[in-house]
Amino acid sequence: MENLHKRLRELRGNESQTEFAKRVGTKQTTYSAWERGEKIPPANSIALICEACGVSADWLLGLPEHGVSISNSSNNAVNSDNASIQVDSPSCRDCPHLLRLIDILERQGGALSTANVSR
Length: 119
What we know:
It is a single chain. With 119 residues, this protein is mainly alpha-helical. The chain has two domains: 4-61, 434 Repressor (Amino-terminal Domain) (Orthogonal Bundle); 68-118, no CATH class. It has six helices and three strands. The protein has a three-stranded mixed beta sheet with strand order 1-2-3, with no helix packed on it. The longest helix is centred in the last third of the chain and has 13 residues, at 95-107.
């Protein structure tokens, strides 16, 4: 969890601490302590941050991500021609990631087929 405070800062981007704290349901002073690495957010706050920012708790906490991995066969942006998805052990928590990828591919005019999905 040594990277938690760095990831929080990354997620906040150009948003003020006050705005970000409000978005994730906490006070600015509390959020500031999290971002400085002085305190660790409780589990319910981690869940709210992940939901608000569209990231996994594994990523936020600096843990290896499990379940869904997305890769491409080139150094270009992921699209329907070069994307592949590996679903190790699908669960409900993987659904938002899969739906987001499908949405991105559909916006690019691509189609996701079972040829792009492996288990």
